[in-house]
């Protein structure tokens, strides 16, 4: 079956290449002034190629517009944590089950609580983001395994599903429940720096460890709640180890 498929693909490429070569040769040949049929045929071919090109461009523009409209219709996970004015740098300790996320000035930004279920089958941890006043903002349920949509993102205390974090071999992809891609997380194996990219490939957040503390720099207009919850959840999943007789701990070194 593979050889047949490969032969079919090769034949298609040969056909396209042959057709392109014939078209180029046809357009390059000179028509006699009295040969009106040759001139008319050239005009028809040029018109057809132009129409096809414009049609393809139009379809691409429509798809891009529909995708942007779809993304705009998605309500942010944490509207109150969107970076509004300038880029922000946040610091947090990951070696505790409950810690504050603070700005460089010391101002509290939000609070994170890590839970380690002992009875839920397949669930190895839960990441909860709260406002500085204790209002639930985000709940991420982390399941065991390193492939598939094994991290579920919920609004508030977990009653409304927002999306998933899908793990692949070298990155994590954050998707809305409508399968719209929101973020992509990639970690440098040498520096352990986590980079977060938006759907168009622009880096919107970086997170790295400094003196036992994680620092995250998030640019303007980005939902910091979604970025932080995703980063912490992926670190919980990838770096936890089970301790005999106790719950999992995070290796932040």
Describe it.
- By secondary structure, the chain is of the alpha+beta class.
- It folds into two domains: 17-72, no CATH class; 82-245, LURP1-related (Porin), CATH 2.40.160.
- It contains three helices and 14 strands.
- It has helices spanning 2-28, 36-72, 224-239, and strands at 88-93, 98-103, 108-115, 123-130, 136-143, 148-155, 160-167, 172-176, 181-187, 194-197, 203-210, 213-218, 240-241, 249-250.
- The strands form two sheets. The protein has a twelve-stranded antiparallel β-barrel with strand order 1-2-3-4-5-6-7-8-9-10-11-12. A two-stranded antiparallel sheet has the order 13-14.
- The radius of gyration is 26 Å and the shape is elongated.
- The chain starts with a helix and ends with a strand.
- Mean pLDDT is 79; it is low at 1-13 and 241-253.
What best-fitting shape do the alpha-carbon axes yield?
A: elongated
Count every beta strand, where a strand is a DSSP E run of 2 or more residues: 14
Overall CATH architecture of the largest domain: Beta Barrel
Reading the helices and strands in chain order gives HHEEEEEEEEEEEEHEE
The percent range for helix content is: 25-40%
For the record, the CATH class of the largest domain is: Mainly Beta
Total domain units = 2
**Helix-strand makeup class:** alpha+beta
Strand neighbour order, sheet with most strands: 1-2-3-4-5-6-7-8-9-10-11-12
Characterize the main sheet.
Answer: 12 strands, antiparallel, barrel
Q: What count of helical segments does DSSP give?
A: 3
CATH evolutionary superfamily of the largest domain: LURP1-related
Transmembrane segments: 43-63
Keywords: Membrane, Transmembrane, Transmembrane helix
């Amino acid at each position: 079956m593979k050889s047949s498929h490969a032969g079919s693909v090769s034949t298609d490429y040969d056909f396209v290449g042959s057709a392109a070569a014939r078209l180029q040769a046809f357009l390059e040949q000179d028509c006699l002034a009295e040969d009106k049929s040759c001139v008319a045929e050239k005009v028809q071919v040029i018109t057809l190629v132009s129409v096809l090109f414009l049609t393809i461009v139009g379809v691409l523009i429509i798809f891009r517009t529909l995708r942007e409209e779809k993304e705009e219709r998605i309500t942010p996970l944490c509207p109150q944590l969107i970076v509004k004015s300038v880029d922000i740098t946040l610091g947090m300790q990951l070696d505790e089950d409950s810690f504050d996320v603070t700005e460089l000035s010391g101002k509290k930004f939000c609070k994170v609580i890590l839970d380690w279920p002992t009875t839920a089958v397949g669930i190895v941890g839960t990441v909860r983001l709260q406002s500085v006043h204790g209002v639930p903002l985000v709940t991420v349920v982390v399941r065991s395994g390193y492939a598939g949509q094994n991290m579920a993102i919920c609004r508030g205390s977990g009653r409304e599903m927002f999306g998933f974090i899908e793990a692949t071999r070298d990155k994590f992809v954050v998707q809305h429940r409508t399968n719209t891609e929101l973020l992509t997380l990639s970690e440098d194996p040498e520096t352990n720096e986590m980079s977060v990219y938006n759907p168009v490939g622009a880096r919107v957040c970086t997170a790295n460890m400094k003196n036992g503390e994680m620092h995250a720099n998030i640019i303007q207009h980005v939902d910091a709640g979604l970025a932080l919850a995703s980063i912490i959840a992926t670190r919980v999943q990838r770096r936890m180890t089970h301790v005999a007789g106790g719950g999992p701990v995070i290796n932040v070194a």
